[in-house]
UniProtKB/TrEMBL annotation:
GO terms for molecular function: aminomethyltransferase activity; methyltransferase activity; transaminase activity. It catalyses: N(6)-[(R)-S(8)-aminomethyldihydrolipoyl]-L-lysyl-[protein] + (6S)-5,6,7,8-tetrahydrofolate = N(6)-[(R)-dihydrolipoyl]-L-lysyl-[protein] + (6R)-5,10-methylene-5,6,7,8-tetrahydrofolate + NH4(+). It comes from Xylanimonas oleitrophica. The glycine cleavage system catalyzes the degradation of glycine. Residues 12-280 form the GCVT N-terminal domain. It is an enzyme of class 2 (transferase). GO terms for cellular component: cytosol; glycine cleavage complex. This is Aminomethyltransferase.
């Protein structure tokens, strides 16, 4: 295998190896799957806190007087309407309305935006933003390689992050709202940085729990990781891998690109039509024509061919991605196919299997009894609202 084809390593790779993590390829990166057990890491996030390496994500900056207008044209949402210091979930779509990636857009200043893309799509998103920003007074810079991203998720997250924050910024951390960000200084003990490092702290988690995402220069990632582990020792913090992250986001009903979202899906099938702003206007009040707008308008005005639903298992056997959703026959055998599971697993928090699936509209109502073909056996499931889990 050539070097170019090998999975890339994050700045925290050696830390994961030292902690005994099982590593796996994901989105072109070599990432920790788990450190101890999937169940222990999942429960730690629900009950205390988990520490995640998200440095495989992409960070693309747009700066200049036309940055907001460029993003209004490039994405389905109205980025120019985001207040400074706030963030918004959005998507970048193709001309046919299909989803190229789902994103979080942070407004860091009047003329400065940060777009965070999924790992496997980061290079595509960067290229598309460069192309779509042509003609706008904006500069697009992909800073993924120089940026590391560490997340602390769970009910003890605020205490842990505050413990490594310099005294003058502790209140900024505690006051940070959901889907907001702020620059803060953290104490890392990194002698090369004078023991402190400036980071962008955000509160836009992917686990269904409270939590913080910390964007840090890649060269300071290891010092920050060590400081957070040390600060979390008395709070139940554990490092957590991709497996726990996936089961946590599934319980929270959050989509994963390549499962609930892909280039065969528009935001409307995924139940995310709310992020599409067909009515957005520019600074002069004129309608904004964005990439995919015509196709998305037509899709909004037509009945859906499939609907994303939540499924709760009535037995113990879980559904998995790719399994058929069927109508149950009287003899317990799988009947007519009505959909496909996109994500599924046993729920450690709830104690029963959960899944998300695309099904035909006539079987999408809450309470509809369906089945999933699990190796030739019709396992009973019922349609339930998403998310499966919400923190109190």
């Amino acid at each position: 295998m050539t070097e170019e084809l090998q999975d890339k390593k994050t700045p925290l790779h050696d830390e994961h190896v030292a902690l005994g993590a099982a590593m796996t390829g994901f989105g072109g990166w070599l990432m920790p799957l788990r450190y101890t057990s999937d169940l222990a890491e999942h429960r730690a996030v629900r009950e205390a806190a988990g520490l995640f390496d998200l440095s495989h994500m992409g960070e693309v900056h747009l700066e200049g007087p036309g940055a907001g207008a460029a993003l209004d044209h490039a994405l389905v949402g109205a980025a120019s309407a985001i207040a400074v210091g706030r963030a918004r979930y959005s998507m970048i779509c193709a001309e046919d309305g299909s989803v190229l990636d789902d994103l979080i857009v942070y407004r860091l200043g009047d003329e400065h935006f940060l777009v965070v893309a999924n790992a496997g799509n980061a290079e595509l998103v960067a290229r598309e933003l460069v192309a779509r920003a042509a003609g706008f007074d904006a500069v697009v810079t992909d800073r993924s390689a120089e940026t590391a991203l560490v997340a602390v998720q769970g009910p003890r997250a605020e205490e842990i992050v505050a413990a490594v924050t310099t005294p003058g910024d502790v209140e900024a951390v505690r006051a940070l709202r959901y889907y907001a960000s702020a620059p803060v200084t953290l104490r890392t003990g990194d002698a090369g940085a004078g023991g402190e490092v400036a980071v962008l702290a955000a509160r836009t988690g992917y686990t269904g729990e409270d939590g913080f995402e910390l964007f840090v220069p890649a060269e300071h990632a290891r010092a920050l990781w060590a400081a957070l582990l040390a600060a979390g020792e008395g709070h139940g913090l554990v490092p957590a891998g991709l497996s726990a992250r996936d089961s946590l986001r599934l319980e929270a009903g959050m989509p994963l690109y390549g499962h609930e979202l892909d280039t065969t899906t528009t935001p409307y099938e995924a139940g995310l039509g709310r992020v599409v702003r067909l009515d957005k206007v520019d600074a002069q009040g004129a309608p904004v024509d964005f990439v995919g707008r015509a196709a998305l308008q037509a899709r909004k005005d037509s009945p859906p061919a499939r609907v994303l639903v939540g499924l709760r298992g009535q037995g113990r056997r879980p559904a998995r991605a790719g399994y058929d959703v069927v109508r149950p026959d009287a003899d317990g055998a799988p009947g007519a196919r009505v959909g496909t599971v996109t994500s599924g697993a046993p729920s450690p928090t709830l104690g029963y299997p959960v899944a998300m699936a695309y099904v035909t509209p006539e079987v999408s109502a809450e309470g509809t009894e369906l089945a999933v073909d699990v190796r030739g056996r019709a396992e009973p499931f019922v349609v339930v609202p998403l998310p499966f889990y919400q923190r109190s």
